[in-house]
Queue: 2 jobs
Job 1
Amino acid sequence: MSFNRKNAWFALLGASLVLGCDRALVDPPPPVPPPVPAIIVRITPASTTVVEGQSQTLTATVENDRGSSGVTWAIIDCAGGAAECGSLGNVTTTSVTYSAPATRSRRPIKITAASIANPAQVCSVAITITPALALEQITFIRQGDIYVVDGDGSNPIRLTTGGNHYTPLWSPDGSKIGFTSWHDGISEIGVLNADGSGLRILTPHIGADTTRDTFGGWSPDGSRIAFVRSAPTDSVVQYQDEDGSWYSYVVWRSDLYVMDADGSGVRQLPTQPGAVFSSGGAWFPDGRIAFAQGGDTYLMNRDGSGVTPFLDGGRRVLSWSPDGSTIAYTTGGNYYVMNADGSNVRQLTNLRGAPVLSADGTRLVFVTVASSAEMVWSSNWAVFALNTDDSGLKLIYSHSAGAGILAAGPSVGALLGGPAWSQDGSVVAVTIDADWLGSAAGGIAILKADGSNSWGVNNTAGASGAPAWRPHGAVTLAKQLNLNGPRDVLRPSP
């Protein structure tokens, strides 16, 4: 082999060895398996409010759960059993139904969903248990101003300032409040929106006008307002007391009026002097005006036409149910109820005071006040419930200041207003005067209609007059949209 051929062969061999080494150096290492994705648990909804006695379904999703094993559920941050914390039902590895317990105040709990594949991976949902009364709203008077508060005592709002107002009443749709405003010896009809805006005096009296108007009630459709107008006449009565001193007073006359809800269209109704709006209310549920005259009750159209006897023969209407189905009346010292068409008359032998009928006309409440031959013990009173078939008489609340002159005086727990039924008929509200003997601040109290419980409503101390429940038409819609209250839906925050 020649020298050149030998060198070429060695060069080729060296190149092959170098190429083989280079190939070994650049070959990639075997693939590394990807990391296992972390398990993530999520709950829908992430937070919610559940009204007592109601339920909420929760759904859990578990990301990267290769075995689709799901979750386990638990209630935490709550001491006590189902009566305090609620319960879980319809439990699966992906969903659960939470049922809220009875409560008188809003309170939070938590429900957790823990991954079965990796129990360390837990998600929680915040739930606020809300009393059913939080869906209601009450208006009342305190020191002459109008307030509203949720039925559970939350969200108190002062709607007026520096007023001297009385008898606030909600419009049927819950959007406005009508009231009587008193100043400088006269009284006028006022209206404001539920958020306190838009206050208007509908019947202003200025200058030498001494007329006094008193709010009578909203028509069922909210388009008109009934009111009483009192004005001085030219007649003056003089009299002499037993000491020989002479006195005189001006005779006033009162008449019944109606006007549009904006204050226009004021019309005097064709009634005789001495006529008053019915004890059942100025408006019958069918939209006619109800008034009493000469011991009888009459109905008339809203324009004053079509006057028709409703109850005569000395039968005096005491109350009718808001749905118009049932009427309570008294005659000859006895109490009766009947259907609105006059049928199904039955005597209530267990009734011992003027009744207030529930919304559906199946139950009523009444108040008794202790008395003696010398005086009425106004601070010794009781509230009873009764079915309209005269069964189920039940004492649901009583207050006693004992005997003696104190029990007949102020500031010892006298009943100032009510009872007023809630919309669902489960409770009634009353206003109680402060009781310094028992160190109670007074205010609005809620009484269970079955007599099982009673409690004071927070933020109502110093309330006076009758409490008025807001109609469901507006407030329930607002609370369904936002259970924090109508403040966020129907009115701006104060």
Note: The helical segments are 3-26, 82-85, 472-481.
Job 2
Amino acid sequence: MDRDDVVNLIKTKKRIGDLARSTKQRIHCPFCRSDGLDLQLYHDTNRFRCWVSQCGRHGSPIDWLMFEQGLSFNEAIKMLAAELGIDITFTDNRSPVLQKASRSFVRALSKNSDVTDYWESRGISHETLYKHHVGYCSEDVIRDITRAEGEDRVSWQTLEDAGLISHGKPAFWNHTVFPYRHWKNRNIVQMQGRAVGEVFGSQNRWKGLETRSKLGQRSLNSMLWGEEELLGYWRRPSRNGKTYAFVLEGIPDALTLRQQDIHALSIVGNMNLKVHTRSLRNLDVVYLVLDNDTSSQENLPWELYDMLLEMPKTQIITVKLPKNAEEKKVDVNEYFAKGATIYDFNKIVDKSPDACEFLVDSWGSNESMYEPLMTLICERPEDERSGLIYRLSSFGLFTMDQLEAFTRMLRLDHSVISSRYRRSRKS
């Protein structure tokens, strides 16, 4: 049975209602957590769609699992096939192809002064780009790969199977290309491109490799750029003797901090951050620096809540950069480009709130949010709880004695209450 047959069988046998845990037609969207019943389940066609413009997620049961767990297309197929007892034999290893292509992209970047000058104008040096194996793709580069001699040659069909050729053209045509490596073996398993030149002004300036290609592998949404160095972070004492990483919303931001000798990783987008907790939970401190636009900040509280429940031993610090009233957003790269220094940045970081304190301050005046807040407080280390309870009591809705009693009650049957609340948010 080939992959297309497996996909069609899964779409027929796995019902969207089972994944959504609902037989209703309209439910709250579990991906954007909208207040209304904005996600529609089409039980007759076995598909779904969220009608919130900032979300818009839609598709089949395979797409649902990809969004929910941050899986690639092939990873989702394998998981559902195993659950349904469907035998699959296709391969999804495209790392060797990406390794060869990456070497050609890096050589092409070193010869293209227009691209390196652009990144220099944004404060990112050619040395930094080369150190992190950043490349550039053009039609000539792809043609050279298919005509190379010996082991470096890759056929057009293989490039197409790996997603590097899409609709007969290079997938990353006129893009700066950033490789993503697996944290265990450092093999390249994904790539992300940033448009430059003629297509620079296009709306979709960033793009990743298609996970639905025949040699599809990990989804960008499930990866941290720079995750291959996480093991090194765990062994390095750093800020105040603690292991740490800065997590930012964009590779240029991460490169900007790396030029300042700060350990920085990059995520794609600002939703479903909990898929990265498996990679981050062994760090002492995670500094989360999302863009300060409306979209990132609106999603932040619930994203932090999910991360804190998954990483109870890790301290999360939320860093928000200042911006003028006229500015829609300021990211780290733009912040330094405006003349800020590492001293200015560290002052902001040192004054940034702990994520638990941030959630208490955000939700403390809303009585309906006390159960999730108390559930979260119970998950935190014992030496943090009394301070958080005192902070919560300052809002005056409950006394400190009442909150402490609530905490003791929760801790008696904490796992049951916590899991019940998580289920209620999904329904």
Note: The CA atoms of residues 26 and 40 lie 5 Å apart.
